[in-house]
């Protein structure tokens, strides 16, 4: 019974580490902004969301060129709606869109927009009003997911080595009490 519990705990711990592994692993395919990469920008309109490419916007656009009622800003009131709508947007093949928006101030935000499929393509940028400042590009093929898996495996092994290493010490301390 103890072995079964240990196996279950080890398996659960492996899967619980994936969010941390994702944060660490994505650094392998996050690079300084490169105009040659696929570079989607989020455009929020009154009743829908759409994507434009960095090259189409040229980096900074007056509000009139974006379309009536459209903006590059994701207002705090509409952030949840945008984060729910973006994954449902049409994407090529079996891929899907993800977006993370971090409000940095009243008219300033950090946006991470990615297309996840056999690989990852996207852009991290900052928006101030209707001005875009590109920060990073994301691009990797299927091996990008392997980076995350390898990081997860290494973290998991390291944690369990530490657990098994301190176990004899904990047993000795509990016996002496």
List keywords for this structure.
177 residues; alpha+beta
Write out the strand line-up for the largest beta sheet, numbering strands in chain order.
Answer: 1-7-6-5-4
Which sheet architecture does the biggest sheet show?
Answer: 5 strands, antiparallel
Count of discrete alpha- or pi-helical segments spanning 4 or more residues: 6
3D shape = elongated
> What is the mean pLDDT?
82
According to DSSP, the number of beta strands is 7
Structure description:
It is a single chain. This protein is α+β, with helices and mostly antiparallel strands and 177 residues long. It is 42% helix and 29% strand. The protein has six helices and seven strands. A five-stranded antiparallel sheet has the order 1-7-6-5-4, with helices on one face. The protein has a two-stranded antiparallel ribbon with strand order 2-3. A hairpin with a 4-residue loop joins strand 2 and strand 3 (49-53). Helix 2 (18-25) packs across helix 6 (143-176). The longest helix has 34 residues, at 143-176. The radius of gyration is 22 Å and the shape is elongated. The relative contact order is 0.18.
Short note summarizing the structure:
This protein is α+β, with helices and mostly antiparallel strands and 177 residues long. It has 6 helices and 7 strands.
């Amino acid at each position: 019974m103890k072995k079964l519990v240990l196996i279950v705990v080890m398996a659960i711990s492996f899967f619980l580490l994936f969010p941390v592994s994702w944060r660490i692993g994505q650094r392998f395919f996050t690079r300084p902004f490169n105009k040659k990469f696929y570079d989607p920008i989020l455009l929020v309109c009154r009743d829908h969301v759409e994507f434009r490419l960095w090259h189409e916007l040229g980096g900074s656009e007056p509000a009139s060129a974006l379309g009536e009622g459209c903006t590059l800003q994701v207002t705090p009131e509409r952030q949840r709606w945008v984060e729910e709508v973006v994954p449902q947007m049409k994407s090529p093949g079996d891929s899907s869109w993800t977006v993370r928006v971090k409000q940095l101030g009243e008219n300033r935000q950090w946006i991470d927009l990615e297309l996840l499929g056999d690989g990852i393509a996207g852009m991290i940028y900052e928006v101030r009003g209707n001005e875009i400042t590109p920060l990073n590009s994301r691009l990797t093929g299927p091996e990008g997911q392997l980076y995350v898996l390898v990081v997860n495996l290494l973290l998991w092994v390291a944690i369990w080595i530490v657990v098994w290493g301190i176990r004899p010490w904990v047993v000795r301390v509990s016996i002496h009490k």
